[in-house]
Amino acid sequence: MSQSYSRYEKARIIGARALQVAYGAPVLVDTEQSQPILIAAEEYDSGVLPFTVQRGEEA
Prior knowledge:
Helix content is 46%, strand content 0%. The protein is built from 2 helices and no strands. It is elongated and about 40 Å long. The mean pLDDT is 91.
């Protein structure tokens, strides 16, 4: 990932993605995991998640 995330941002991204996977979203990596949170963490580590974080207020 080109951007460095804080641990809070990382937790929010993985949590949001795990919820998507739990509700049936397609998995973006080949994995042996079955728990959505572990799948989301693996996707995060692979850098395939299309999430962005906006910091501060943009004018």
